[in-house]
Each structure stands twice: as structure tokens, then as C-alpha cells.
Batch of 4 targets.
Target 1
Amino acid sequence: MLIEKLDRTQWPLSQAIEHVTVQIEGAIERGEMVSPPDPSLPPWRQTEASRTTAANHAAREIQIALRDGDLHAKGRLSTTQSQPWSAPPDRWDLHSGHHSTITPEQWRAGNANVGLGVLTMLDGQFIDIRVPRFMVLAIWPVVEAPRPAPAMDPDTGKPYRTPYMDLLDSAIAEFRISQRYQCKKELISDWLRTQEIEGEPLSQNLADAMATLIRLPSSQRGGARRGL
């Protein structure tokens, strides 16, 4: 069933805010939106948005989406008042170990601290609030910066390539290298040493360097990494 492929990953609100902050910063860099204002400064002192102001703007966007019901969230609920208590954040105790759905009405009626992932109401409090990753990505999709067009070779009319690039592709295909499987560098290097570029064999240093470039940086600590 297609429903079985649904991405059920849950993000803490802090992670959702970080994602939206990055998208806002990207939109500002691309000129698609103006820098969000810093509410702590008067209009004549506004400067280009810092990461703090972008994060504040992101938190506000998320809170609006939660209040409007466009973004759904769950949290661990407490309806048990702790005694004695001296401040509202300390008022609630014994939060559930399971997450319950938070309604838009609760978001509108409560006092939210989206940065901490807490929603405090008159009759209870949600903590450890989480939102579905796929919903965050649907509302605030990742927009990749446009990549420059590949350099064209005027002699062939195709993107410029070197024999070394072709040999790297051949090595990847030979050892079936992927993110899930990283072959040992020594095996790749030995195979590259058997190949020739323009009739000349590769030096050991060059073969080692090319073998390094093929593998992921996380695999440079040694050994071959296999995915589960």
C-alpha cells in the first residue's frame, strides 16, 4: 500500500525552526524576500537580517501554521498541577510518556514557546512537541540554489570532461560504489594502477588521490562502510 511509504519521521520544533530558518536565509540571498525585521529595533535601525532575526521569523511562521491547522503537532500532555509552584512553567507535573494531538484551538488559547517546544494552557501543558517532517517540507520545501551550467567544450559541443573523470566513473561502476557501500581505498587504488591515461600508467600517488575522491569523507577513517 502507498500509505506504508509515508514518511513518519517526527521533528522537534527546534529542528523544524532550524529548517525554516535556512529556507528564509536562502530566499533572502536569492532576493525572493526582504530581510525580516528585528522586532527589538526601531525602523531606522533595521539592518540586514541576522540569523537570530531569521530564526525568530521562522518560529513565528511555524506558530502561525500550527494555530491555523496547516501544520499538525503532538506533545506530552500534563493535566496535573504540581504543588507548590511559584512560576507558570513549574505549574505542571507528571507529563505523559506518550504524545497526544494538539488542536489549533489549543494553540490559539495557550501560551506557546516554540523554541523550547512547550505549550502552556489554563488546564494543562504540552512539552516535547514534535511535528511531522513531511508536513514541514511540504510547507517550507527545500529550494536548491541554481547551479551554473556546465562548461561546454567548443570542439565537441558537449560538457567538458577529462580522461581522469571518465576513469573515476569507470572505477565507481567497477566496484559498484554507492552511499550504502564504500569499497576499500586500497582495492580501488590497485585497480586504478592497472589503468592507463593517454597510454601512460597512473602513479601511486595519483591512484591513491583518485581513490580517495571516489569515497565519502565519512569513510576516510578506514575500512569499507556498508549500509544496513
Note: Residues 85 and 136 are 36 Å apart (CA to CA).
Target 2
Amino acid sequence: MTDVFTPEKRSAVMRRVRGADTGPERRVRSVLRAAGVGYRLGGQGLPGRPDLVMKGRRVAVFVHGCFWHGHDCRRGARQPKANADYWIAKIARNRARDAAHATRLAQDGWAVITVWECALKAADFDRRLVAAVKAGQAATISGEASSAA
């Protein structure tokens, strides 16, 4: 399937895909700020550069887009039609990299919380996120009828 955009337009569209300060990230920060939970941005020096870090609690928070990180929800399970082989391999590499970073952080004594984009729509998202952070235990916060574990 050919691209519906010209190469210049596609380039402009892809430039707008943000890697930091995304809408889901801002929502997570807003929830934590409202709950009085302090955090730092960026996670420089830590494996995977977590989106949010709470050094005192030794908690690292990753906010993942369902498509880009291969979540098993409806949006994350979508198969791209154009250049499918590239994107399937790319998302598989992202998943493997994410797992390796989480393992490394856990070995270093950090609790890793992964927030999936689809979870932001859940009615109890705020409560689950704050509970996971305050417990200081590894958790995955997903919107697909699962809870922080």
C-alpha cells in the first residue's frame, strides 16, 4: 500500500510524534501532583530513562503508548498496513528493550510502574496509580480490566 501523504507531508507528520511531554505523560504527572507525590522528570542515568522518577521511594514510572510499545489491548494489537514487516519488528524490539530495562531496574532495587495509555480512560485510574506509587511495588496499570499488580 502506498503512502497517502507526500514524502514532505509524511516527514512533517512524523516530526509531530513526541517522545517526551506527551498527553498521557502530562495526565500521569497531574494525578501524582494532585495527590502530593513528588517526582523528577527524565530519569537520566537509569536504564531506559523512565518518564518519572521518585528517588526516595526508588520508584520509576514508564508511560507507554499502546501502539508504540505493543500492548495487548485493542489499540496496541493493531497491525500496520503500510511497511508492516518494519513496524512489527520495530515494536517487537521496543517490547524486548522495555522488558530488559524493567529487569535491570528491578535488579538495582527499583520498583517499576508501567502505565499504559489505554489505562487513562479507566474510572479508577487515579486511585490505582497513586496506590501503586505509594506502595512502592512494581505494577502494570492497564485499561484492559486488570488492576495494579
Note: The longest strand covers residues 59-64.
Target 3
Amino acid sequence: MSVVARQGFKYSIIGYISTLIGMFSIFIFMHDLKFYGTLRYIMTTAEMLVPFVVLGISYSNVKFFGKAKDDNRHQNMLSLSLALVGFNFLIFLLIFFIVPFLFPEIKNLKIWKMKEGILPLILLLSFCTIFNKYTSNYKRIVVSNIFDNLLPKLANLGAFCLFYYFALSQKLALTFFFAIFVLILSGYIYYTNRLEKINFDLRTDYFKQNNFYREFATYSFFGFLGTFGNHLAINNYMIGEFIGLEENGVYNILLALISLISIPQLGLFNISAPIIRKNLADGDMEELDRFHKKTSLSIYFLGAVLFACIMVGFPYLIHFMPEKGVMLKMYEPVIWIWGSAVLVDLATGFNGNIISLSKYYKFNIVVMILLAGLTIGLNWYFINHTNLSLIGIALSTAISLITFNLIKITFNYFVFKVSPLSIEMIFVSIICTLAITVALILPDFSNQFINLIYKPSVVLILIFLGNHFTKIFPVEQYLNMNFLKSAFKFK
């Protein structure tokens, strides 16, 4: 089995373990949504500001890794990248503390009041971002998934338990939270050194040759512009700042459920970047189109199965939450709206990766800025001119994501002659819709736990029966001993 399949599978396994921890944590976080909302506000606000420190340098560590490695200067590129991030952070701090003197009203915002927690996290996450992209060049993404997905969830859970169950102060709980991210950065450094011994090299002569630094800086700058489309961070910030920290807690619990749908996407996209880059360099559009369709169908099928299970199981899951999940029940439409938008995103595959790794990467930037502007504008409208609250945020996200992906599909089709869409996706949609419909009309038992197991089980049985006869997804390739044995060799 190929390294892509093994690493993608391992990545997904870690993702599902992380999701299970997140699912378990939901029942705990429901006891104090405001503090959980505070943790998520600090984290996502830091994530939103990290691009202003990294400035796209992490993307250049993927784009130019092949060239630098051929010249045996990839360690030089990593060293200078880390040094630049440290310098950028000092400039960012200077601007951060000067702006409130020009606009005093900023001091009334939560972002200023929580700066002691947000600023250190920005620095830690910025360095982690460089190491994450750099290690992906070795087609090793499993350990980075532990650092990026699993440990942050444990940081949230640990900090919350210290605050709620052990009655420690919020300051001590946040100290534990930050300590986990120090551990993550240390782990990245250790793991990168294991892949290939780190040799810090701050010489600049290589980047001066043929003005390579200009090409590096230009790509980094446009990569930075492309990060403006992080709609999840934008949503978290705007909910926490303008709606409330408790609602931010609810939003993130729903996000934890919806994120289950897109876990396969994350693993495949990270490991596929070097393959996309090679196909583009070789001009092999036929192979890229084949790989694009195959990958898109795989993640869409898995996502659709998970979404169907969530749809029919959610009403019974919240019955076991504190106060029977009253607030979650109130915002159940968020699951339908946002989940459907995520499925559309899955179906479009790695459109953005193709554009960003090609000579047309600047177009991707324009589209990402459009997404950011559309998301902010729609969020602002729904927050200030409707009473939809989180449902409005979900509608904003859905409109932005669908618009964003339609533009990228059209561009890739006309420029590269590649498309993620296939007729099999229509059959997947029909099978999953029929499975959901049957599960919903079947009678309920009086025991909610039985319903929670029984309804999603019906969905799974119907989907896999449908897949057995239509042969849409090659399940047998993944449910055999040879693949499982190779998948669990963590190399």
C-alpha cells in the first residue's frame, strides 16, 4: 500500500481518536459554556493573527523545498524561516501596542483585555506552523496531526477540568493550557530533528543567488494574503466578540461534531501536496485529474456517511448532555446548514491546493480574500440586522464556502482541464439521502440510548448495502489485513 494511503489512514485514525476525545469533552464543556467559549476565543483569535506573523513563509517551505533540497540548502531555508518569524513577531508586538493609542476604543474589545493569553500563543503557533509545513515535505503527517489536532483538544479538556472540577483560578487553568503548546513546539523540534538532524544555518548567500529571495518573498506574500479566508477563525472571533462567549462555546461544540465529517480531507490534503506539485511540474494533467477525482470521491463518500450518521443521531445525543442540551437543540439547524456546506467543500477536493502550488497561485489569493470579505460582511449583516444568531453565522459560512468552491472548480476546469466532480458522487448523494430518510421515518424506541445506536446503524447498513451493489467506493481495499498491518507501522 502506498505511503499516501498509509499516512492518510493513520492521520484519519489519529483524527478520529481526537474526535472521540472531543465528543467526550462536549459533555464536560456543557457545564460551563462561558469558560469553554473563553478558551476557544483565545485559541482561534491567536490562529486568526498567526498569518500576520508567519506572512506565508510556511507555504514557501513547501513550494521551494524540492529546489532547496536539491541544492542541499533546505536546512538553511528552515533556519532563516524560523528567524524571520521571530523577527516578524517583534514587529507585530510593536504594532499591536501602538494601534490602541491611535484608536482608544480598541481597549474595550475582548482581544485587548485577553492579550496576555493571546500574544504568547501567537508566537508558539507561528513556529509550529513552520515546522508543520516543513515536515509535510517528508510525506509524514501523522505525528503533526497529534500535535495539531489531538494535543490541543487535551489542552482544552485539561484546562477546563482544572477550572471547573478542581476549582483552580482561570489564570492557573490558562497556564496549563499554554504549557501544552510549549510541549507541542518542543515535540515539533524533536520530531523534525528525528526526520533529519537540524543544522541551523543563517547564511543568506543562497537566497541572494539569482535574486531567489524575491521569488521566495513574493510567494510568501501571496500565501499570506491567501490565509485571509480562514472562515472558522473569523467566525469564532466575531461570535466571541459581538455575540457572546457562551454562544462561542455552543458554536465550538457544534463545530466539534461537524469537524468529524472533514477529518479524511485534512489527512489526504496534507500528504497530497508533494504529489500535486510533481504533477504540475511534469505537466501531467491527466494523472492529476485522475488523482483529483479519486481523492475527492473518497473523502466525499466518507464525509457523506459521517454526516448521515450525525444527522439522524444528533437529536438523541443531546438528550444525554447537561440540561438535555437545550442550547444545542435550539441551534440544531446549524448542523444541517453547515454540514451540507462542508460536504460541498469535500466534493470539490483539493482545488485550492492545485491553484496555490501552480504559477496561478495569485488567483487563489484573490478568491481567498473574496471569501474572507464575504464571510465578514455576511456575519456582520446576520449579527446586526437579524435575530438568527449562530444560525445566521452558519448561513454565512455556507454561502461563502459554496461560492468559494464554485469559483475554484470553474477556474481549474478551464485552466488545467481537471475537475473533482464525477457521476459517482451523485449516486453517493442519492444513497445517503435515502438512508437518512428511511432512518428518520422508522419508529423511535422509548430508550434514547437505543435510538442513538439504532438510527445511525440503520444508516450505515443501508449505505454500505447500496455501495456493495453500485461499487462506488472500494471498501475492500481498506478492510483487509495487509492494508491494516501496513497502516499501523508508524514510520
Note: DSSP finds 24 helices and no strands in the chain.
Target 4
Amino acid sequence: MLIIRQIMRKNIWILNALEQMTKLIAGKRVEGVLYIDEETGRLTFKAYNRQPRNRHERVVCQLENGWLKESPQRYKFFSSVKKALGRRMVDVVMHRELKSSMEVLEVEEILDRV
């Protein structure tokens, strides 16, 4: 019985290889894209440059249909209302929630001054 093994060796060009190898040695996963570079014709791996998310948001108040959050630079207001209520009721509900969240901000401002 004859077993034929065909070994294919291909070199992969890794962009920022030292950074990626330190991540791999640390046990982290490196995500990226593997492609053949059109200019050089080499098989190339390019890692994604993902930035960590620093979500330091505080929920100021939880509303009936949304929330008001505070981040270091912004206040974020979110409201989600069903279309089935009709345009006029959606308008009323959103204005009511915005008004209540603004009242919470005013109370917090007063408490911060004390």
C-alpha cells in the first residue's frame, strides 16, 4: 500500500507581527483578514485594530419606554414607542418622558449643589 502525502508550504506575511505574536503568547485571540496582496502576490494577514469600549455610562433614570444615561461627555436620552398608538399619542408620550427625564436632571443638579 502506497501512501502519498503532499505537503503544501506557504509563507504568510503578518502585518505588525511582533504585536500580534505578543497577543497570541498572552493567550488572546487575534481576529483579522487573510488575503493575497495584489501588489506583492504574498499571502497576507492583517489584524483588525479594535479599540476597547470604555462604557462609563450611568443610568440617571429608567423611563416607562426608555432611559436617560449620563456619560463623561453627554446625556443620552432614548425612547421607544409603538407605532400602533398613532402619531398624536406617540408625540404626547415622548414629550411626557422627555419632560420627566429633564425634571430628574434638575433634581440631581439641585442635590449636587447642596
Note: The first strand starts at residue 12 and ends at 14.
